[in-house]
Each structure stands twice: as structure tokens, then as C-alpha cells.
């Protein structure tokens, strides 16, 4: 079974997803078969299933969400994601088919198998990861059907499961952002909040503002990606006592909406200006960023490559 996401395959995603989609419960704990122990997902005190700390696409803790994690490669290297949702998101936004894809077994998260060798159960009562329709993997069809006997759902292969995840991407963005705001993971800056670096008001620049969440759950707001990058170069200069940065969020250009900073593609050195002039403009889609670079100059890089000199063209 080839584990690919071809263009034709993506076009079929809506049809396949519509045929297979089943609503799931939001309960974090479920029981399997005849009185087996409850299954915790996410896991509150998990073992170290992976040395990778956070999903590169959404920033979630990989060990907490280890039951649904995926591993794969593309031209940028190796990735470990919290879910098939984030795998599909990276595939679409990079315009690359994931290769050498493996998935953790839902009931044995320490074990990862090639996706050609597993069966996915979609739409069961198991809690979804980055989606309301869970997609969990089992080593055999019998095991998946055994879970479905009490938890519901439909048994499918990898290509069907990833097609469903691809179809859900656009529809799920607003829901995911609303949940993040409800939980306090991200917050819109108030009118009185000032940029941590330049002192301007981020609320006046809704198309450009970004924010950092510290390990102490403190939010630091910035009017632009330029100020964010300047801050990260020397955090102590602008905010005393910032011991650990938990997550970084930026506003996607040009459509808006918050996304985890590490998962995006940044256009730097272009003629497009922001509140502070030169910007690192965050795009979801790499092809869109490259097209903008052709039209407006500059080049496209990942977040880890950003620094003040690169952003400001020094």
C-alpha cells in the first residue's frame, strides 16, 4: 500500500472524507472491550516515547499525545507530529508527499509501524488529536474491529485516513483557534497592551501581531514579526526573568489567524512592509510564499533561520 499524498489523491479527499466521516465523543477517557483499563489520551504524566519535545506543526507535547503520533520524512528532513492531522497539514503546506511514514499504535504507543502495515479506526469514541473525528491506528484489522465493537467507528487504511484529515484542514482552523483562545493558549492583545520591544500597540496591527507564551503562562505581545525576532535575540533586554518560552504564535499573512510559529514559511527581504518596516511574513503554504517572493523579492526560510539581520536586511 503506497503511503503517498498525490495531487489526484488530494482532489479525492473531499469525496472520501464525506463517505467515511463519523462524529466522535470529546471524552478524554474511554473503556475498551470487556472492562479493560481506561485509556488516557492525552497522557498527563507520560513516559518518554520520543526525544522530540513538541509537534513542529502545532506545538503540542509529543509524549502527551504519543498514542496518535506519526513520523515521516520529506526534503527538509525528519518530522514527528502529534497526529495525522499535522502530518497532512505539513504535506499540503510544503506541497510534498510524506515518505517513510510510521504511526504509533493507539494501545501500544511505544510501538511504531509503517502505515502500510496498520489499520486506522476513524470516528470512534476515542478523543481526537487536532480534530473532532479521531483517527487511531491498530496493528491488525481484528484489533481495530474489537475496539470498534464498544467504541464505534469505521476501519480504513492510511490513504483513506489521511484523505479525511486533509479534507478537514480548512474547516478545523477556526475551531482549533477558538479552543486555543478558550484555554488561554493564545490571547488577542487588549487596546492598552504595548509591544514588548518598540512600545507600539499590537491591537492596532491585527494583520501582523505575534505573541510568546512563557512557561509561567505569561503572554508577551509584539506588533510585528520583526519585533518578535528582535526580542528572541536577547529576551532579557526586553523582559526580565523570562526563564522559558513555551510557545510562539504569529499571525498568518495575508489571511490572518494565529498559527504556531515553527510550522510556517517566512518571506524575508521583500518589498512588502509591516508596522516596523521590513518583515518576516508568515505563510502557511510554501508555494504561496515562493510566489510572493517572485513578485515582491526576497527569499523563503523557516522560523529557525530568522534573526534580526536577516529580517531587516542588514
Task: Describe the protein's architecture and organization.
This protein folds into two domains: 175 residues, no CATH class; 111 residues, no CATH class. It is built from eight helices and 18 strands. A four-stranded antiparallel β-sheet has the order 4-3-5-6. A hairpin with an 8-residue loop joins strand 1 and strand 2. The N and C termini lie far apart (50 Å). The N terminus is likely disordered.
Q: Which descriptors would you attach to this protein?
A:
2 domains; 18 strands; 4-stranded antiparallel β-sheet; 314 residues; disordered N terminus
Instruction: Report the order of strands and helices.
Output: HEEEEHEEEEHEHEEHHEEEEEEHEH
- Measure the end-to-end span: 50 Å
Sheet having the most strands: 4 strands, antiparallel
User: How confident is the prediction overall: mean pLDDT?
Assistant: 88
The overall strand count is: 18
Uncertain runs are 1-37
Rg calc? 20 Å
Number of helices: 8
Shape: globular
Q: What is the quaternary state of this protein?
A: single chain
Can you tell me the number of structural domains? 2
Strand sequence of the main sheet, in spatial order?
4-3-5-6
Task: Determine the structural class based on helices, strands and strand pairing.
Answer: alpha+beta
Strand portion, in percent? 15-25%
Estimate percent helicity: 25-40%
Amino acid at each position: 500500500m503506497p503511503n503517498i499524498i498525490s495531487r489526484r489523491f488530494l482532489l479525492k479527499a473531499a469525496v472520501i472524507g464525506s463517505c467515511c466521516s463519523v462524529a466522535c465523543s470529546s471524552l478524554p477517557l474511554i473503556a475498551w472491550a470487556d472492562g479493560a483499563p481506561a485509556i488516557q489520551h492525552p497522557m498527563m504524566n507520560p513516559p518518554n516515547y520520543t526525544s522530540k519535545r513538541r509537534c513542529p506543526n502545532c506545538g503540542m507535547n509529543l509524549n502527551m499525545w504519543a498514542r496518535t503520533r506519526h513520523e515521516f520524512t520529506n526534503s527538509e528532513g525528519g518530522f514527528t507530529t502529534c497526529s495525522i492531522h499535522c502530518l497532512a497539514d505539513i504535506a499540503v503546506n510544503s506541497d510534498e508527499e510524506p515518505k517513510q511514514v510510521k504511526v504509533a499504535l493507539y494501545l501500544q504507543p511505544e510501538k511504531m509501524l509503517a502505515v502500510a502495515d496498520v489499520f486506522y479506526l476513524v470516528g470512534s469514541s476515542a478523543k481526537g488529536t487536532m480534530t473532532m473525528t479521531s483517527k487511531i491506528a491498530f496493528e491488525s484489522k481484528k484489533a481495530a474491529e474489537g475496539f470498534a465493537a464498544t467504541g464505534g467507528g469505521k476501519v480504513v487504511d492510511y490513504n483513506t485516513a489521511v484523505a479525511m484529515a486533509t479534507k478537514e484542514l480548512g474547516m478545523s482552523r477556526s475551531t482549533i483557534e477558538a479552543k486555543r483562545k478558550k484555554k488561554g493558549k493564545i490571547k488577542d492583545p487588549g487596546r492598552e497592551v504595548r509591544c514588548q520591544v518598540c512600545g507600539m500597540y499590537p491591537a492596532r496591527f491585527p494583520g501582523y501581531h505575534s505573541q510568546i507564551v512563557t512557561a509561567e503562562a505569561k503572554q508577551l505581545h509584539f506588533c510585528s514579526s520583526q519585533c518578535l525576532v528582535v526580542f528572541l535575540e536577547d529576551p532579557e533586554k526586553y523582559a526580565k526573568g523570562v526563564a522559558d518560552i513555551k510557545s510562539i504564535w504569529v499571525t498568518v499573512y495575508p489571511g490572518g489567524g494565529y498559527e504556531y510559529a515553527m510550522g510556517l514559511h517566512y518571506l524575508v527581504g521583500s518589498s512588502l512592509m509591516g508596522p516596523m518596516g521590513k518583515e518576516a511574513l508568515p505563510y502557511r503554504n510554501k508555494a504561496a510564499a515562493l510566489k510572493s517572493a517572485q513578485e515582491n523579492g526576497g527569499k523563503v526560510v523557516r522560523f529557525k533561520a530568522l534573526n534580526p539581520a536577516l529580517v531587516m536586511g542588514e
